[in-house]
Task: structure prediction
Amino acid sequence: MIAFHKEKEADCTIAVIEVPLEEASRFGILNTKPDGSIYQFDEKPKVPKSNQASMGIYVFSWSKLRKYLEADEANPKSSNDFGKDVLPAMLNAGERMFAYRFEGYWKDVGTIDSLWESNMDLLNPNIELDLSEENWKIYSRNSVMPPHYIAKGAKVQNSLVAEGCNVYGEIDFAVLFSGVYIAPGAIVKDSIIMPGSRIEENAIVQYAIVSEDAVIGKGAVVGARPEDIENKEEWGVAVVGDGCVIAPGTTVPPKAMIYAETLAQEVSK
Result:
């Protein structure tokens, strides 16, 4: 992308990817000429004119970037946003702006469904995304925990299990972040369990995202399989927020969003 930017002698290059037209209104949308130069940029338009979506990845020539950032900071009416302010200002001034077409794996995680899908993609052998790829290493903050532990009698299939996890129950198509505890008799399927969370004995978590340091109590049920829901419009990924405690025996229905412990206690049994 940087080589492309230099080749075009661009002032700004924006990485773009084609998205389904029905989803285009969630993105900054570009229109380009045959040479790749951008002649129109609309931030999250209600009626998109193309499906070329900005990935939010930019390369700038430093002198131009500084000029427009300083001008934007001096404008009291600006919202200080690249998509809403800086990029349109550059385009209106006639600066050399080009779209770099990206064709690899990418997913915007601006919705619950896309966040869930992107994690499940890590378990899909048909997706060319390998976390162990030597030529494309991912560097992130390391919690430095002990190796994960899979107990005798536990069942682990098609899953990613991070360091510090203790698995005594059953997981399938699950992504377990660091320090997760899965108790004996607990079942986790098609779900994301974030750092430090606990799934207690005989709890069932399906098609759900459980955020950091949450506790799913004994025998609680979070989410459901889509084939088990008669009205498909009522199905969706269930979400349990940071630090929430789901009481024993509680049922959290599909599509529910539990974002505070007080609400967690109010979910219908």
